[in-house]
């Protein structure tokens, strides 16, 4: 699994944590860099908003990893709402988990709640 | 009345713990695998979930689970073994340094009492099981069955145990149980032919919209779920306030419940009587019972009367009986029964 990681997220390989299909965003700079780099492409960006206090987020984590690995043409970015408060504020992420779908810099949809079937449905709808 | 069918009436368990200033997240730190294991014992599972800064809300295959830092509420229907969760939950809380403060177990009367497993065949047996699971520190205990004279088959059963003689709970809990739902209204909660393209989440969203449940409280974020071929559950999240609705729409044993935690000081659109009126209007039932639990000194008779006035005026529901009981360390319970005014 590890060998393919850098080819899937060719622009962001330097940010990968080992074997992770979900990019953990640790700083605003990292967020800006990712966001700006995706504006020009037609790739789907799925922002996974989580928090330390969110039990449902932790329950959903293994499924998110699975889904991210299956739909590798989409970019999954995990944002902790307490660590990156302004990003969370921009996307009004108060009720979690919130999966926000972004294409060319614009939000096109979102799934709020631990709803793996709904998440998969929407990824299939928007990934092209 | 059907010979047997799904039991909509829920068993409800609430466990409250002492605050721990060292641990503001409290019970929310219980890891999901452990929660899942407890639910497994109860014979239910998580189907959807959502959280905000105040609490975690899980929709279960048989109702709901709410986890606050110092309070857990589990509500399960069907033939679930809810009381099996008490010991493991107390144990998980103790591992986090949290001490049990109070326990409340309540339910209405089952539509199919003979279909229930032991100890749920008799409230006396349930009380024995609860008592055995609780530490001696919860020394203020009371069990009570409130039986309305107009409808003895619709009793309300409550067992409370508390370490304090006074409750300091400021949240008022309102539990509404509705049966004989309007058949047309109940249709919203059946999956439609040809809707296979909808998964349970989007079908749930559709039911929320179609039934008007989204209009009960506009500020509430709704986490909904549709069961196949019928049935519906939702948890509502509004700041630190929870609400929950569960629907068994089948004719012959139709049932819907609405529960929420409120403050007596909500007014206007979110006034208790307005919220209840909108919630009951979704189902237009022929039988409604409302159990309201006030902690501490909060009992307000004006609220009780206002609810009766509003339901009579807006929904033509006449209050047929009203009973009150007091529980040491757990507050006051008011139990009202309503049926439609004869035309």
Can you give a write-up of this model?
The complex is a heterodimer of chains A (128) and B (343). Chain A has helices at residues 5-8, 28-39, 55-70, 85-90, 116-126, and strands at residues 22-25, 45-50, 75-80, 98-103, 106-112. Chain A contains five helices and five strands; from the N terminus they run αβαβαβαββα. The two termini of chain A are 24 Å apart. Chain B has helices at 32-42, 86-95, 123-133, 183-186, 200-211, 272-283, 301-315; strands at 11-17, 46-51, 56-60, 63-67, 71-76, 100-107, 140-146, 156-162, 172-179, 221-226, 232-238, 241-248, 255-262, 287-294, 317-327, 331-340. In chain B, helix 6 (272-283) packs parallel to helix 7. At the A-B interface, helix 3 and helix 5 of A face helix 1, strand 2, strand 3 and helix 5 of B.
Structural class of chain A: alpha/beta
Low-confidence segments of chain B: none
- Which residue ranges of chain A are poorly predicted, with pLDDT under 50 across at least 5 consecutive positions? 1-18
What's the helical proportion of residues of chain B?
A: 10-25%
Give the largest interface pair and sizes: A-B, 21 and 25 residues
Kindly report the spatial arrangement of strands forming the biggest sheet of chain A.
1-3-2-4-5
Question: What is the straight-line distance between the termini of chain B?
Answer: 23 Å
Q: H/E element string of chain A? A: HEHEHEHEEH
Overall mean pLDDT of chain B: 93
In angstroms, what is the radius of gyration of chain B? 19 Å
Major beta sheet, strand line-up of chain B: 2-3-4-5-1-6-8-7
Percent in helix of chain A? 25-40%
Sketch the major β-sheet of chain B. 8 strands, antiparallel
**Proportion of strand residues of chain A:** 15-25%
Overall 3D form of chain A: globular
Count of helix runs of chain A:
5
What quaternary form is this? heterodimer
Protein name (chain B): S-adenosylmethionine decarboxylase proenzyme
Family (chain B): Belongs to the eukaryotic AdoMetDC family.
InterPro entries (chain B): AdoMetDC-like (IPR048283), S-AdoMet_decarboxylase_euk (IPR001985), S-AdoMet_deCO2ase_core (IPR016067), S-AdoMet_deCO2ase_CS (IPR018166)
Modified residues (Pyruvic acid (Ser)) (chain B): 63
């Amino acid at each position: 699994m590890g060998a393919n990681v850098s080819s899937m997220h060719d622009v962001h390989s330097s940010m990968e944590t080992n074997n992770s299909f979900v990019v953990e965003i640790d700083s605003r700079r990292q967020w800006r860099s990712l966001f700006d780099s995706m504006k020009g492409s037609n790739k789907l960006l799925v922002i996974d908003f989580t928090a330390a206090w969110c039990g449902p987020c932790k329950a959903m984590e293994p499924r998110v990893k699975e889904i991210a690995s299956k739909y590798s043409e989409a970019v999954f970015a995990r944002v902790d709402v307490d660590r990156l408060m302004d990003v969370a504020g921009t996307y009004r992420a108060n009720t979690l988990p919130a999966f926000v779908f972004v294409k060319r810099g614009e939000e096109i949809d979102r799934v709020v709640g631990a709803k793996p079937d709904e998440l998969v449905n929407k990824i299939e709808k928007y990934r092209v | 009345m059907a010979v047997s069918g799904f039991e909509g009436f829920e068993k409800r368990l609430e466990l409250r713990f002492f605050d721990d200033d060292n641990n503001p997240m409290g019970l929310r730190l219980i890891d999901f695998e452990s929660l899942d294991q407890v639910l497994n014992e109860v014979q239910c599972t998580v189907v959807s979930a959502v959280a905000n800064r105040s609490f975690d809300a899980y929709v279960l295959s048989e109702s709901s689970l709410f986890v606050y830092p110092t309070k857990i509420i589990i509500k399960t229907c069907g033939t679930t073994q809810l009381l099996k969760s008490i010991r493991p939950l107390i144990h998980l809380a103790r591992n986090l340094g949290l001490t049990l403060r109070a326990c409340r177990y309540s339910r209405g009367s089952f539509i199919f009492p003979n279909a229930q497993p032991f100890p749920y065949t008799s409230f006396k047996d349930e009380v024995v099981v609860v008592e055995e699971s609780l530490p001696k520190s919860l020394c203020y205990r009371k069990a009570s069955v409130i039986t309305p004279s107009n409808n003895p088959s619709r009793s309300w059963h409550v067992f409370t145990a508390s370490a304090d003689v006074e409750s300091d709970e400021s949240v008022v809990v309102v539990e509404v149980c509705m049966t004989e739902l309007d058949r047309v209204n109940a249709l919203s909660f059946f999956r439609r032919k040809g809707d296979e393209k909808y998964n349970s989440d989007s079908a749930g969203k559709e039911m929320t919209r179609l039934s008007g449940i989204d209009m009960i409280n506009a500020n509430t974020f709704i986490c909904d779920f549709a069961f196949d071929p019928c049935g519906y559950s939702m948890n509502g999240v509004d700041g630190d306030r929870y609400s929950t609705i569960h629907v068994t729409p089948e004719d012959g044993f139709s049932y819907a419940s609405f529960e929420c935690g409120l403050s007596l000081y909500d007014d206007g659109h979110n006034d208790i009587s307005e919220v209840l009126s909108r919630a009951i209007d979704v189902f237009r039932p022929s039988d409604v019972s409302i159990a309201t639990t006030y902690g501490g000194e909060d009992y307000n008779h004006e609220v009780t009367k206002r609810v009766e006035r509003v339901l009579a005026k807006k929904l033509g529901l006449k209050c047929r009986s009203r009973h009150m009981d007091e529980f040491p360390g757990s507050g006051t319970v008011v139990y009202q029964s309503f049926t439609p005014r004869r035309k």
